[in-house]
Amino acid sequence: MAQIQKTETTAHFITATKQQRQHRVYNGGHQKMNQLVRFLFGHEQAVFTNGRFGFDVRPSAVILVLLVLLAGVFIYFIYLRPRVRLSKRTTATLVALRAAILALMVILLLRPVVVVSSVIPRSSYVAMLIDDSVSMKLRDVPGGATRLDTVKQALLSNNPGQNSFLNRLEQKFKTNLYGFSGGLARLKDGNDLYGEGRTSDLAGALDETIKRSSGMPLSAVVLATDGASNVPRDLAAVLRELRARDIAVFTVGVGNTARPKDAELTRVNMPRKVLVGSRLNIETIVGLSGYDATKVLLSVREDGRTVKTEEFNLRGNDTQAVNLEITPATSGIHRYTVEVTPLDGELTVENNKQDALVQVVEGPLRILHVEGEPRWELGKIRESIQPNEKNVTLVSLQRTGENKFYRQGIGAQGELETGFPKTEEELFSYSGLIIGSVEAGFFTADELRNIEAFVARRGGGLLALGGRLSFDGGKYKGTTIDELLPVTLSGGPVDDANSFTPVYKPVLTAAGQSHPITRLNEDRGANQKTWNELPPISVSEVLTNVKPGASVLLEARRVEGNGPTAPLLVQQRYGRGQTLALTAADTWRWKMRMDAKNNAHETFWRQMLRYLVSGTPDQVEIGTEKEVYALDDMINIVADIRDKHFNPVADARATARVTKPSGAVVDVPLKFTTLNSVNTYVGEFKADELGQHGIELVGTSTSLGTLSARANMLVSDLNREYYGAAQNNELLKRIAAETGGKYYTPTEAQSLLDDLIYRQTPYSERVTKDLWDMPVNFMLIIGLLSAEWFLRKREGLA
């Protein structure tokens, strides 16, 4: 083992040495090129780029014509009528050489100049902003140095025989040196930069620079960064302000622009609330860069204990969705950590994991199931959740005759005694609603409106089942139920010939493979096999049109023939709630036609009912916009306070009492406002402690009395600086282009200084620089004369 470690250390040393050598060669080559240009042309490249060419001597046109004629006569008698016969090629070459010499002499006699704007020394300011965030500690630049050290070396440090960029800049400008990450700080020198900021607020730094420079003659901003920008800001507005003030931003991009070797857990999405014992679907986005297709191991920890580990084959240099699934066994607030096992050679492993908080709740939550006629489907659904299901209570209302009903699962003798709930308050006492084979005429107009409000305003879940009196068979076209459904009704007659013949097999879609309802087995292969083995069912109506935004989880395919599939199970969001449509009329066949040990039917319906109500909100709730924040984030607390009709209450006096991990308590006042088109109560505070925070709603309302609700949120050791680790040079080029600046690499610091000096601003003056005495002119004269002499000598004309 020691030998292996020694070998690895040697390999790293060799690699670092080669990188340092490459860095020195590149730096030296760039500096030598600049020196060569200045030696040959006598001026900086920026003089020629930004200047306008002209002549100091401007003779009349007559003199120029006479000079051309004299040159032509001279060339004619010397080369076109020589005493020695020459080949045409030699003659043409000699004529061209002598013409070039004479033309160059004439141009030099006219004293060529370049007129360029040059800053008036120390008349204006330049603000230099240097990124001081954690991502600047990444080592992905030539030479193996950190990004921050590279910037310090290029802009702040004195090189052998040469002052630093900053010292040379101060000879021409008054300068203000700043460091920035989440905020802007004035610096004394480079020693004040540590690379410890947890965020990068580019727009905020530029905006603060504008504010601090108010009243100053600010000429330009030099922005040295890797382009990371992870604080939500309106950058476009800041760039417009810079343009309006004629302040150009010159960006210096540091870091590798190519995709580094890195595995990144970009996003983790979980439902905030789930019933205990229900499947919890974890949606993740995993990105691979710098790697070919490879196997990646993902793990899930619940409160520090590993509960799931699964291996996935991922495409190389791509970002893709990866889904995991767990089943919380205990109620309470659980912290889940999803992590990608580090790969060999990663640039950083700080972006390999993310946390989430999930509230695992106990029931029972009540679901109302309405049927217009006796049928086996209701009975088998009830059997699927008995006797062990404690989190969902199914209350059923089955019509047995005119104004006669069979009630099951009721909580009180008077419940549903007169049939379907007549008021919103009565209907809103349920968390979910199932409408089976019952015609639209069974409901009054007010009851239909109440059902729409139950989903849209109450936030309940609605499931429509197939049957003889369902969908178009129940004349629902044009009703509020038609609007709620995730499928489109045709309004035409239903063909009963094959409506109740079991000729359709359920087929999992891509969305259904990982959905909590349709995952009958934790193993993906076994889940697919279970669905393949289920017996055929009937589809009362083939509804082929799915509404925009809806997801098809199951499709129905005929057992015989290769006809098109039809939607079988479809789900969509509607207002605060959700709606589902299951067009099958007899899923009981999955119970009756399978082996007694097969529990696919029970699992499907248990998961269906739990999913239907797990997201149904309470009347009074409190929480945060996100369940996980990073240090120094502003945490937005949101309280949703509604009356018995689930309309927002505007008369509450509400406070969020936040208990930090240390035990400190902070009261955050909540104000009634509109957030994302919803009337709610909002307040905010800054995250300054890592760990789980408790939030309690404290307050009163005239209509509701004392208010009470609780929630939790997490401040995680999440550092956004390591996400998207490559240099964002496109953003830096955009900032420069939109403000009239330019983008540079650290090795182009001299070019940056020249461009700052030789540019037209209110603080510059026009200067004239001679071009006749450029060394390259004399080299050209000597070269042309030497070439002519050599050719004449070879032809015997010398």
Strand residue content: 25-35%
**Gap from first CA to last CA:** 80 Å
Give the strand order, joined by hyphens, for the main sheet.
18-17-16-19-20-24-23-22-21
Specify the number of helices. 18
Tell me about the largest β-sheet. Answer: 9 strands, mixed
Structural shape: elongated
- Number of E-type strands: 34
Arithmetic mean pLDDT: 88
**Uncertain stretches of 5 or more adjacent residues:** 1-28
Using only CA atoms, what is the Rg? 38 Å
Helix content: 25-40%
Question: Given the helix and strand composition, which structural class is it?
Answer: alpha/beta
Lay out the secondary structure.
Elements: H1 2-41, H2 45-50, E1 52-55, H3 61-80, H4 88-109, E2 112-119, E3 125-131, H5 147-156, H6 165-172, E4 174-180, E5 184-186, H7 202-212, E6 218-225, H8 235-244, E7 248-253, E8 262-269, E9 273-275, E10 280-289, E11 294-302, E12 305-314, E13 318-326, E14 332-340, E15 353-361, E16 365-371, H9 376-384, E17 392-401, E18 404-408, H10 424-427, E19 432-435, H11 445-456, E20 461-465, H12 480-484, E21 504-508, H13 524-533, E22 551-558, E23 566-574, E24 577-582, H14 589-592, H15 600-614, E25 620-624, E26 628-630, E27 634-641, E28 653-659, E29 665-675, E30 678-686, E31 691-701, E32 705-716, H16 729-739, E33 743-744, H17 749-757, E34 764-770, H18 775-795
Helix pairs in contact: 3-4, 4-18, 6-17, 7-8
